[in-house]
Design a protein that fits this description.
Blueprint (H helix, E strand, L loop, with lengths): L14 H14 L41 E2 H18 L5 H21 L6 E5 L2 H5 L14 E4 L6 H17 L5 H13 L8 H4 L1 H4 L10 H15 L2 H10 L18 H13 L7 H14 L9 E2 L5 E2 L6 H21 L3 E3 L2 E3 L1 H16 L23 H4 L16 H5 L29 H4 L3 H16 L2
Antiparallel strand pairs: 1-2, 2-3, 4-5, 6-7
């Protein structure tokens, strides 16, 4: 099977260096009071009164991208994928980076515990996106509305609740041997609010979350996703029974080649397939069939492939921030490859078959493209390689740091930095941007946010990929 054209660089990539930087990126996205061991020194404390207007403590967590709003839906997904990266590939990280990855998970879960501290309520967002997006200011200077938005019995949000349950359950596995008491707290919290009050959060909170993180796909996949992680974390039969009972109702076989903060279908199928491939639960066989179909749908050269590839070999799906699809789908390719390897399986695709080695090569090809094996010879990870994006769409990176410019920069005063042709003064090491278009061209320019903005959910699955390739080059 032929892969799209490759643009090899002379030197093999330093995957461990890229791994270190991909984890470091999360420290640049931190909100709240920064700890003494904070390594991204140009960032300072921010948003220290989040939640105060609602009488709760919602400090901490992550800014999801280049703005200053804390969106709970993508933050929870980021935490789930960081946890899955540690669970499946932590052994490949080396002690130092494994510890850093676990700290990145805990920064997310500490916040999610605050967001779910009141029974029957989940705080799902802090910050008014319209006022925030009307400004170009450092998080340390924020004076925009910090409204806290919640879901409850009167305003359901099964999607974000399901993803939050998944994040807490997945993280409980990460901490099971490292911090048993914390692990139990995470799992107990995940169990407490799963599958209550069905409905999409973007119906309840439309003006706050749309069009930014509007749930286009529906909430059904998150209910299965949350149950799948609760089953994996708790091994309680009721979650398996829930999955079996709701598989058809919640459309587990829909959009099998979609995976990201809004759509969990491919992830559900790959995650549950491990049970089948390891010979533990044949009754989940339909999920493995769906996972096989997912693999065939993304392979280049297959007549019914549903994924486009750029001339340079990058996966491409319509919509903004393409790299989120590249890293998430590649993560699933690699995870499934490992599950297949341990069970001596291959995936039948029409007149050919996909071996575990083939899936690994395709995933590695995507990682190598990100790191510089592409027509522009550009790394799309900031701070990695000789050439990388200099003008990323990111407020804190593009404005002078508090250390060099202690005077406040007001909402509209930041516009001149946004429009400046100069490189960003603060290098957000490890940030992976939205990436090039279908023709492999890339405008290194802040206003082109779909191409130049980094996000936490681009990096989270990349952590697992880089961990694996750092020890299996």
């Amino acid at each position: 099977m032929r892969f799209p054209s490759s643009h090899r660089l002379a030197n093999r990539h330093d995957y461990h260096d890229a791994l270190r930087k991909s984890i470091l990126f999360f420290e640049g996205q931190r909100s709240g009071r920064l700890p003494p061991d904070q390594r991204v020194r140009w960032r300072k404390d921010s948003a220290l009164r989040d939640g105060a207007s609602s009488g709760v403590d919602l400090t901490g967590g992550y800014y999801d991208a280049g703005d200053n709003v804390k969106f709970g839906f993508p933050m929870a997904f980021t935490t789930t994928l960081l946890s899955w990266s540690v669970i499946d590939f932590g052994r490949s990280m080396g002690g130092g980076e494994l510890a850093n990855a676990v700290r990145a998970v805990k920064w997310g879960t500490d916040y999610l515990l605050k967001a779910t501290a009141h029974d029957g309520v989940v705080y799902v967002q802090v910050g008014d996106p319209l006022s925030d997006h009307n400004c170009w200011e450092r998080p340390e200077d924020m004076d925009t509305l910090r409204t806290a938005y919640k879901i409850d019995a009167n305003n359901p949000g099964s999607d974000v609740a399901g993803e939050t349950a998944a994040a807490l359950a997945a993280a409980s596995i990460v901490f099971r041997s490292r911090n048993p008491a914390y692990s139990r707290l995470l799992l107990d919290r995940a169990i407490n609010f799963a599958d209550r009050h069905r409905g999409a959060y973007s119906s309840s909170l439309r003006y706050a979350v749309c069009p930014f993180y509007c749930d286009v796909n529906g909430y059904q996949d998150e209910l299965l996703w949350g149950a799948a992680w609760l089953h994996k974390a708790s091994r309680k039969r009721k979650y398996r029974e829930y999955i079996m009972k709701n598989e058809v109702i919640l459309r587990a076989g829909d959009t099998i080649n979609e995976f990201g903060w809004d759509n969990k279908h491919a992830g559900i199928n790959v995650l549950l397939s491990k049970e089948v491939l390891m010979g533990k639960d044949e009754e989940l066989k339909s999920f493995q069939i769906n996972a096989d179909d997912f693999i065939c749908s993304v392979l280049p050269g297959i007549s019914y492939s549903q994924i486009q590839y750029s001339p340079g070999g990058l996966m491409f799906k319509a919509g903004g921030s393409n790299m989120q699809h590249v890293t998430s789908l590649s993560f699933l390719l690699l995870a499934y490859s490992n599950y297949l390897s341990h069970s001596n399986h291959v995936v039948p695709c029409a007149k050919t078959s996909a071996s575990p080695a083939l899936l690994k090569r395709l995933a590695k090809r995507q990682v190598d493209y990100i790191l510089g094996d592409n027509p522009l010879r550009m790394s799309y990870m900031v701070g990695y390689g000789a050439r990388y994006p200099q003008r990323i769409h990111h407020r804190a990176s593009s404005l002078p740091s508090v250390a060099t410019h202690p005077t406040r920069i007001a909402c509209k005063a930041g516009s001149r930095y946004f429009l400046s042709p100069n490189p960003n003064p603060n290098v957000l090491v490890g940030a992976v941007v939205g990436g090039p278009n279908i023709s492999d061209s890339f405008p290194d320019s802040r206003p082109f946010f779909q191409e130049s903005e980094p996000t936490t959910y681009i990096n989270a699955p990349l952590v697992g990929l880089l961990a694996y390739f750092s020890s299996h080059p």
